[in-house]
Amino acid sequence: MDPPxxxxxxxxxxxxxxxxxxxxxxxxxxRTIVELRDDVAIKGVLxxxxxxxxxxxxxxxxRTPEGSTMKLERVYVNARTIxxxxxxxxxxxxxxxxxxxxxxxxxSRHYQRLAxxxxxxxxxxxxxxxxxxxxxxxx
Length: 139
Fold this sequence. Notes:
Elements: H1 21-26, E1 31-36, E2 41-49, E3 55-63, E4 69-77, E5 82-86, H2 93-117, H3 129-138
Antiparallel strand pairs: 1-2, 1-5, 2-3, 3-4
């Protein structure tokens, strides 16, 4: 179906850009606070965020509602338990999202180029060239 006269057709936005997941993934490498559903807060450097928003933090401190703290070298946080991910004040959200978008775009271009032109150094045929050269010389 064509758009009505005078209206431009808008480009379809990929699914991973229509959620806040790309924003949380852009926070990788930033020291942040992840607040859990049981009122526990974990402050640390966000190391990894997968497509389900499971998070891994390093050099973290876990603080309970009672005020007790525990230092953790590395902690995995299940996405189901996350209530909030705090964004540091010095982080510009629009810049983070744009940088993440460009990374994904460049990655997709890289893999499209590989698919179209193949690897730069193709593998040598099985059996090796020296064995065939010897066979040709002895004939």
